[in-house]
Design brief:
Low-confidence stretches: none
Strand order of the largest sheet: 13-12-11-14-10-15
Number of strands: 15
Strand content: 25-35%
Largest sheet: 6 strands, mixed
Radius of gyration: 22 Å
CATH class of the largest domain: Alpha Beta
Helix content: 25-40%
Structural class: alpha+beta
Number of helices: 11
Oligomer: single chain
CATH superfamily of the largest domain: L-amino peptidase D-ALA esterase/amidase
Shape: globular
Length: 413
């Protein structure tokens, strides 16, 4: 079960004017499950995205980059689960392009490049494009503005819960809606975003500014999470802005921009954290808060070294305060001139915080019973002060349980 997370109710996910979603059972890999989603966008909607940095990036990622790079008006997205269409060579590219062409034809769009394709699932297996194409009419017939809840379920793979978030804010006398969905539970260590994430707003945002905030939102959310340290071949994060609220942001200096940007980032963070809370086999949600760095990059180096470590993660699962493993991870994070004598490490947050290490070793005040008590919690903070500068940053991760191995050992069965 996910750590302190439940899928929002359908009525808690506000429709975004100009955006409709439909799902269908296409039998991509398994029968009797909704595994195909279409998102239709009204004319005038701007779209921006960021994608995996994995060199073995999936065919749909390559097609998305190509279509967005040509600066067309994107009018639809198509998402399948079950098969990732990664490691499939030229055949996979043809399948992704055929998918775009079929959906464009069914929606009456002039160009295939008005469609963005997305896939998630098993790598190195061919996409059954005939089944996908056959399922598209049912997904189109299901298109509705209030279908976010169903779409959140249809994009799942090993997820145990659907992930979604929504906000309504008042800006410039207009009601602005931001709603999004994401999927992911394993193969999570993004180098841009999550496995799949889609966020829409009815604010009007120029293409260049939307592309900028897509990167900023990813950097503050999906680029701060890790479940197992594996960067997927299919990571994609998409922002869509329909403009149908009547509020149109001109540029970054527009008085309305700060509030709109904050809502987009907040929803992205909620979606990213939901992925970690639903990490495969996770029983604990862990925040690694690193401060006192020279810059954000070295704070994240330390945060990810701790968050990736199987030894750290298994200790948290067992509630075993074997906290020397945290010091070891800090030491191999890759900061060559790190003075370990200046580093301090705490466990816990708020009033229940324990100083674990200082001056190069165990803090004199530390008692293992205190560490053990905090590690029993479902939500735990590890705070590290590098004492090198003004920068700070948080990484979100989870523990490793027996179930992580079981889930991934049985993934294809």
């Amino acid at each position: 079960m996910p750590v302190n997370y439940a899928t929002p109710a359908p009525e808690a996910l506000f429709p975004v004017a100009g955006v409709r979603l439909g799902t269908a059972e296409a039998g991509i890999r398994k029968a009797n499950r909704r595994d195909l989603t279409v998102i239709a966008l009204d004319p005038g909607t701007t779209v921006a995205g960021v994608f995996t940095q994995n060199r073995f990036c999936a065919a749909p990622v390559q097609v998305c980059r190509r279509h967005l790079g040509r600066d067309p008006e994107i009018r639809a997205l198509v998402i399948n689960t079950g098969i990732a269409n990664a490691g499939t060579g030229e055949t996979g590219l043809q399948a992704a392009m055929q998918t775009c062409a079929t959906l464009a034809g069914l929606l009456g769009l002039d160009e295939d490049r008005a469609v963005l394709p997305f896939s998630t699932g098993v790598i190195l297996e061919p996409l059954p494009v005939d089944r996908l194409q056959a399922g598209l009419p049912a997904a189109i017939a299901d298109l509705k503005a209030d279908n976010w809840h169903a779409a959140a379920h249809a994009i799942m793979t090993t997820d145990t819960v659907a992930k979604a978030a929504s906000r309504r804010i008042q800006v410039g006398g207009k009601t602005i809606t931001v709603t999004g969905i994401s999927k992911g539970a394993g193969m999570i260590k993004p180098n841009m975003a999550t496995m799949l994430g889609f966020v829409a707003t009815d604010a009007g945002i120029p293409q260049q500014l939307l592309a900028q905030v897509a990167k900023e939102a990813a950097d503050q959310s999906f680029n701060c999470i890790t479940v197992d340290g594996d960067t997927s071949t299919n990571d994609s994060f998409i922002l869509m802005a329909s403009g149908q609220s009547g509020l149109h942001v001109k540029d970054a200096q527009d008085p309305a921009w700060a509030a709109v940007r904050a809502a987009l980032v907040e929803v992205s963070i909620e979606l990213a954290q939901a992925i970690v809370r639903d990490g495969e086999g996770a029983t604990k949600f862990i925040t690694v808060a690193v401060e006192g760095g020279k810059d954000l990059e070295e704070c994240r180096k330390v945060g990810y070294a701790i968050g990736h470590s199987p030894l750290v993660k298994t200790a948290f699962f067992a509630s075993d305060p074997n906290l020397g493993r945290i010091l070891a991870a800090i030491g191999y994070a890759g900061i060559a001139d790190l003075d370990v004598g200046n580093i301090r490490v705490w466990l816990g947050s708020g009033a229940d915080t324990v100083l674990v290490a200082e001056k190069g070793g165990r803090a004199a005040s530390y008692k293992e019973a205190d560490g053990s008590r905090i590690m029993q919690n479902a939500e735990i903070t590890v705070r590290v002060d590098l004492a090198r500068g003004p920068a700070g940053g948080d990484i979100y991760t989870c523990d490793f349980s027996y179930d992580y191995v079981k889930i991934n050992a049985d993934y294809r069965s």
